Structure formats: C-alpha cells, structure tokens
Amino acid sequence: MAEELEQKQGRVADTVSSLLQGGTVPEAQQMLNALHPAEIANLLESFPTTERKLLWELVDEENGGEVLLQVNDEVRSGLIQEMDEDELLAATSGMDMDDLADFMQDLPKTLTGEILRSMDNQNRQRLESVLAFPEDSAGGLMNTDTVTVRPDVSLDVVLRYLRMRGEMPELTDHLFVVSRFDHFLGVLRVSDLLTRDPSGQVDDLLDTHAVAIAADTPAREVAKMFEDRDLISAPVLDERGRLIGRITIDDVVDVIREEAERSILSMAGLGDEEDMFAPVWSSTRRRAVWLGVNLITALLAAYVIGLFEATIQEVVALAVLMPVVASMGGIAGTQTLTLVVRAMALGQVASRNSRALLFKELGVGVLNGLFWAGALAGIAILWFGRPAIGAIIAAAMVINLVVAALSGVGVPLLLKRLGIDPALAGGVVLTTVTDVIGFMAFLGLATIFLI
Amino acid sequence: MAEELEQKQGRVADTVSSLLQGGTVPEAQQMLNALHPAEIANLLESFPTTERKLLWELVDEENGGEVLLQVNDEVRSGLIQEMDEDELLAATSGMDMDDLADFMQDLPKTLTGEILRSMDNQNRQRLESVLAFPEDSAGGLMNTDTVTVRPDVSLDVVLRYLRMRGEMPELTDHLFVVSRFDHFLGVLRVSDLLTRDPSGQVDDLLDTHAVAIAADTPAREVAKMFEDRDLISAPVLDERGRLIGRITIDDVVDVIREEAERSILSMAGLGDEEDMFAPVWSSTRRRAVWLGVNLITALLAAYVIGLFEATIQEVVALAVLMPVVASMGGIAGTQTLTLVVRAMALGQVASRNSRALLFKELGVGVLNGLFWAGALAGIAILWFGRPAIGAIIAAAMVINLVVAALSGVGVPLLLKRLGIDPALAGGVVLTTVTDVIGFMAFLGLATIFLI
Asked: Which family does it belong to (chains A, B) (predicted)?
C-alpha cells in the first residue's frame, strides 16, 4: 500500500525511459507532461545527467518554470545551463515573487537585469522588497500579493470590491486590514466574510490578535509558528509595522521538509541540495572533506592504541576485543546525543533541566553498562578462557557507557556554546570521545592488572 | 537571531520554574496559560516528571485538551494517569473527530464507552467512521466537518446557506459539491464564491479535477500529495466514491514533522514518541535492544580479528592501524547509504537507474579510496617505518571504500526487497559489512605479504 504513489511514478519513469530509448519521443513527451510539475521534477532528479537533458527538452514550456522551482539546487543549475535567454525569461513569467527572488540567484547577471527591466514599476518594487531580505527569513519567504481592505467599510463593500477584482491569490484565508498609511491593523477572516451579515462593518469583525510576523524572523521560527498555530497565511510587517507581504503555508511546508532533510544529510556530511547523479569528481571532492575529518579522529584513536603496543603484544586477545568496547560506547552515546540534540532544537534543554537530564542519562548508562558488561564478560571468558580478561572488559564497558552518557549530554551543550551546530558536529566529536575512552579504559586496565 | 523564539520560551520556562519553587503559584499559572497550547505542551515535555505534574495542575481546563493532543504519546499517557474521569471528559469536548479518535486510544475502555454514549447519534457515527480506519491512513487523518452543496443551485443560494449556517470549519478553502447520494462531484472554491457573479450556478464553477483521496491511502502518501500540489484541504472518499470527510493541511504538517523525526530517531534505534524524562528503567530496557543488536555485529567483527591473532602477535602495528581502515569504510558507506535511502523514499531509485547510480558511487569510492589510501600510507610509513605496512593499508583502504560504495547502494535495495525498512536497519548492516571487510582485507593482506 505505502508504495502506490512511488510505484505509479516508477512505472511512468520506466515507460518514459524505454519510450525514449525506443525513439518514440512524442509519446514520452505526452506522458511526461501529464504529470504534475512536482512529479516531473522528482522524475528529472532520478535520471542520470545525459538522459535528464533529453527529458528536459520534452517538458512543456508552461510547466518549465514550476519544474525548475521544484528540483534541487544542483539539478536546477544543470538545467539552466541548457537553456537560452528566451527560454529562461519564459520560465520566470508567472512565478510568485518569493520564488522569482530565489530563482534569480541562479541566473547570469545579464539576465537578472533584463528581468528587472521587463517588469512594470510596481512588480519591480515588489521583487526588490523580497530580494532585500535573506532567503531564509520571513522577508525572503514572503509574497507580495496581499489583498487589503480598510477598517471603516461594510462587508458588502468588501464583497463588491472582490467581485470587481475578479480573483484572489491562492491560499487566501483572510484579508488584511490596513490603515491609510499601510499600517497593519488586523485580519478579516474569509469565513466571516461569507457567513456574517453583509451590512456589518469590517471593524466589528477585525481580528487584532492575529499573528503578524516581522520581516527579519528566521524561516525556522516562522515554520514553528505556522505549525503550532495551524496557520494558512500570515502577514509580514516591516520594522515600522507596515504590511509588506504575506507568507503562505505551502512555502512553510517546504521549509519544514528541507530542514528535516538537512539534518539527516548533514549527519553524514552531505549537502541537502546535492544531485544524486552529480559528476563523480565533484562528489568525490565534497565527500573527501568529511572523510578527512574522520581520518583525523580515527588516527587519534589509533594513537591511543599505539600507547599500549607492548600490552597487546603480550595478550593479543585484547586487540580482538577492543573494538567491541569502543563500538558499544559509540552506540550508547549516539542514542543520548540524538535525544538531546532533538530536545535542544525544540528549545527544551536549559540550565534548569540539564542536570536532571544528565542524571537520567547517567542512570541509563550505568544500568545498560552493567547489563552488557556482564554479557560481554561471559562471552570473553568462554572465548579466551581467562577470567581476568572478562573482568577487565566488563569494567571498561561500564566506564565507557558512563562516559558516553556524559558526552551525549555534554558535547551538544558545549558545541552550542561554541556556536557550532550540534546536529552537524555532535556525532564525530562524540564517537571520538567514546573510541578514545573505550580503548584507553580497556587497554589501560589490562596494562595495570594483566601484565 | 535564530534563537529568539527558543529564548522566549526558555525565559518563560525558567521563570515559571522559579516561581513554582518560590511558591508563587498564581503568577506561574497566569504566565503558563498566556502561552499557546502548543508552547505549553513543549514546555511540559521539558520538565522532569515530578515538576511536570505540578505544572499540569496549573493548566487551564480550556487549554487542557489541546495541550494533551500536542505532547508526545509517552508524556500524554503520564498526564492522563493524573486525571480523573470528569477531567478527561472535559478535555475531549470540542476536539476534532480525528484528534478525538487518536486520543481515545489512550483512554481506559470504560471511558471510551462513556464518551460514545454522551455523543449525539450523528457525532457518534462520525467518530466511528474515523475509528474504522488505521491512524496513519487518510481515513484516520480525516475530519468529518465538511460543508457540502448541490451542483444545481446558484452561488447566491450557497451564500445565503452559509450565512444561515453562521460559521465554517477552520481551513475551508473550498466547499464540496455532492450528488443527492453523497457522491463527490468536485469542489467549489471559496475564492470563486467571493469573486464571481452570485447569480451563476455552482455547476459552472465546479472543479471536477480537484484531488480526491481514497480513505485507505497511507498518511505518507497523503502528505506527498499535499506538498506537491500545495493543498489546504482535500476530500476523502470511500470505496464507492462517497464523500466521508476531509483532510486539512495542519494534520498533514504534523505527519511530515513526525515522519522526519522518526527517521532521525530510528537511526539511533530510538522511538519517536519518547519522553526525555522517561523513568530510567524503561529507557534502559528500550535502548538495550539496540545495544544488543550492536553487540552481535561488534562480536562478528571481533571474530574476524580473532582469525588473525597470530599475525597481530607478529606485527602489533596492525592492531594499532586496523580500526582506521574499518572506520573510513563505515563513513564512506554511510554517505552513499544516506543518499540512496533518501532517493528511495522519494521513489527515485529503480532498476532503470540503479546501475548508473552504482557506477557513480563506485567511481567516488575508488577516487576517494586512492586519495586517502595515499595519505594513510604516508602516515603509516612515517609512524612505523615499514613501507610494506603502508602498501598494505593503502590496498585495504581502496578495497574497503569500494565495498562501502557497493554496500551503500546494495544494502538498502536488498533490505527493501526483504521488506525491511532501510532507514532503520541500513546503518547497522552497512557498518557490519565495512568493519568485517576492513579488518579482513587489512589483516588478510598482512598475513599474506608480511609474515
């Protein structure tokens, strides 16, 4: 069941792919353009570069702009390179201001000038007002297509105005009520407009407690507000309280999805806008950085092992068992770390409760440490027939799981204080600690008690 | 900047906490209830169990239901245990049908009977229709508060009907047009209702291409549809095409967020509805499972090392360097795995492109393998002064990074074919492979060429 949509898309992709190879281009084209632009974008991302270019030629011009907005950054720049100026200009027509503002950052400078010149004054000003804010702020997310009314008119007047206007922007769940100087006063709900007596005044239905968002609010925070309060749209105000635009839930959903993807991909040191068929060479370079960081931490662990070369030479069983201690610490620590990083992202960790959290995690670490220490000691004794090795590995295990709990709570708090994103760097730092402590505890105890 | 909202919430939490400790309960209560229910929920989750209970006593009854819906499952059951039947009944009043259906699963059986009895016939039928579907399907997500109109009336009649009705359900962006037998015909957009000539017929504005969702569609797929098509609400139909409810974007946003959290938490073997202050004992038991799985894989790697005890005894430097090879393979493999699992979730991996993907990843593996093999060989030679060790570790590194690329692509595809979630099990299987191959290649080559 869960695969239905995927399966459908997969079937279309397979068919399009074989039609292309068979040379029946018109049918492939028809099939492709019957999809929703978001589905076309998804499909384009899934084709290797050469086939992707062929496919992109087949996408109807009317879908082009929307598809470009939906593919990831890296795929987008690849597609843009294949387009001439006229095609690019055509793709931008009909884009929302916030989308256009994002899109223009990928275009050659000459073209952005041309786009700005081809707009009327009002639209140019609107676009420039969006471009004035960072992409990941409320101002960068906003659209400028607001419908505004005055507080001192009747609903009937508003209804007549809307009929004259002829259409409303998508996702309009309320109209914005503003003063003569564009100062935001509150909202008028569309549902009130439909259900209340038309002779009433806007004033009387004005909701002055509606959420209004300052233009410099970070996108992540905007998403949280939409999520907590079930918003569809919200007004964006400049620093003087004037209405300058509106954010809609569709853009917020994209923010939420991108944020989630970013956290998963960044844990593996990957960017979130990567083309899965990026050229081998550029993928290699990007991933090499993360591998280099890991090499340094692995060498640090190796250095610790090197301190105990003599001990290992004496008792080779230690070399066999030492990765087990390190690895269990890494797993236990990662569990605590994941929990703490998530709670930190929700604003749930502070000095008031970090102590209680630490004690709880220490408790879990000690209990699981004792339990698995017992199990592992038994296995070690059966395997190597030396009770002393069993005792030593048990002690090292308890030590490492306690250290894992300490680091799982402490490392993200420390990183945050240093201004480093714990979601990005937490895992590397933590496993370095548990590797080093794991090897040191196990080999150190062995040196003291076995040799 | 990014911390503003968190900081605000943190400040409130600190103040409430110190007010409570100082015994100034009324002020704490006032401060708490000035927050939005979602914020209260977030705050409750962040307090250790004893303080949380105190705080929960202070939440106003009118906020209670909404707060209960917003906290995670484990915290919710804890709070419900503190409430008597009357409080629980009060909390359920005014809940949407989909929320109530979820909530009832946490209530004692006696109470659910009472709730059903206290409802009128119509609402009971509605609730039962939601309860009939799994929680994570369109039917389980839907609400039953649809506004329906007939196709053969004028807009004016619809407007008068709405004024008579007096209010509309939240997030109503279109009305559903149904036949006499409740068969879904299409939607009438609220914006058309507002902007078109009221003497026109519903028929003429009927959008028959609007997305309609079958009740058994999985939640994940519903979310994808909302996301791709920027929907606010969509009708839910039974297998005979009759309108039975409606899904709104606010519930979909929750699905998206939960799905994202689940993927991050499940990578560390954690559940997504865990209380961060769960009792130590129950946390210990839950996490022990994942540690146990890891112990088995770690012992497998230890077994492989054990095969080469004699070799290590001869050249202890091998024991020092062997974790480096294993760890680099794990990192490189995780990068490929993360990329592939994400693409699979988007339906972007199929037999048509898995070969191209594999070749690309192999290319990256070989190049990064050669590069870091060179670097590591240099370090090994400088460290231990034996060129042979450098050559062997370089060869093992290339082998392991190639195997990592193969497994990064192959393991998730294989797991999926076996019906196992690659996001859950992929990491463990992959690192087991890279550990085993890393140790085997390095120690095996050393046994052949050094001894």
From this structure: Belongs to the SLC41A transporter family.
Q: Report the CATH number at residue A43.
A: 1.25.60.10
If one counts the domains in chain A, the total is 3
CB–CB contact A347 B42 (8 Å): yes
Q: Are residues B239 and B357 in the same domain?
A: no
The answer on A287 and A243 residing in a single domain is: no
**Residues A247 and A334 occupy one common structural domain:** no
Shortest Cα distance from A319 to chain B (angstroms)? 6
Tell me if B360 and A171 make a contact (CB, 8 A cut-off).
Answer: no
What residues in A contact B165, CB-CB < 8 Å?
Answer: 195
Report the C-alpha gap between B262 and B270 in whole angstroms: 8
A293, part of any domain: yes
Q: d(Cα A208, Cα A210) in Å, to the nearest integer?
A: 6
**Helix spans in A82-180 (H):** 85-92, 97-104, 109-118, 121-131, 138-141, 155-165
Tell which of B221, B238, B267 closes a domain: B267
Do B92 and B190 lie in one domain? The reply is no
pLDDT at site B257:
87
Domain interval for residue A187:
148-267
pLDDT at A2: 40
Res. A1 pLDDT band, cuts 50 70 90: very low
User: Domain ends where: B234, B267, B300?
Assistant: B267
Give the chain A residue nearest B219 (alpha carbons): A2
Residue B14 placed within a domain = yes
Q: List, as ranges, residues 396-415 from B with C-beta within 8 Å of A.
A: none
In sequence order, the β-bridge partners of residue A237 are A214, A243
Judge whether B194 is closer than 8 Å to chain A, CB to CB.
yes
Question: Cβ B295–A372 below 8 Å, yes or no?
Answer: yes
Model pLDDT, residue A297: 96
Note whether B156 and B178 are same-domain residues: yes
Residue B228 and residue A39: Cβ atoms within 8 Å? yes
Quote the tokens at residue A359: 């004690």
Judge: B171–A230 Cβ closer than 8 Å, yes or no: yes
For residue B252, the domain's CATH number is 3.10.580.10
Same domain, A237 and A291: no
Measured between beta carbons, which residues in chain B are less than 8 angstroms from residue A313?
A: 313, 316
Closest chain A C-alpha to B330 CA, distance in angstroms = 10
CB pairs under 8 A between A and B: 367
Q: Is the CB of residue A220 less than 8 Å from the CB of residue A208?
A: no
In-domain check, residue B60: yes
Look at A171 and B232 and tell me if their CB atoms are within 8 Å.
yes
* pLDDT per residue as tens digits for the range A300-358: 999 999 999 999 999 999 999 999 999 999 999 999 999 999 999 888 998 889 999 99
A141 contact partners, CB below 8 Å, separation of at least 6 = A98, A219, A222, A247, A251, A252, A255
> Does B290 share its domain with B314?
yes
Which residues is B242 bridged to in the sheet?
B183
> Cα dihedral sign for B344, B350, B354, B356?
negative
List the 111-170 stretch of B: residues with Cβ below 8 A of A: 159, 162-163, 165-168, 170
- Among A17, A38, A302, the residue with its CB nearest the CB of B324 is A302
Could you say which residues from 345 to 364 on chain A have a Cβ atom under 8 Å away from some Cβ of chain B? 346-353, 356-357, 360, 363-364
Question: What is the residue-averaged pLDDT of chain A?
Answer: 91
Burial of A103 (C-beta count, 10 Å sphere; 0-12/13-18/19+): buried
Is the domain of A253 the same as that of A388?
no
* Alpha helices, DSSP H, located in A247-279: 249-267
- B194 CB neighbours in chain A (<8 A) are 159, 162-163, 168, 190, 193-194
Asked whether residue A49 is assigned to any structural domain, the reply reads yes
Residues of chain B below pLDDT 50 = 1-3
Tell whether the torsion through CA atoms of B183, B186, B189 and B194 is positive or negative: negative
Asked whether the ipTM of the predicted complex exceeds the cut of 0.85, the reply is yes
Q: What is the pLDDT of residue B105?
A: 81
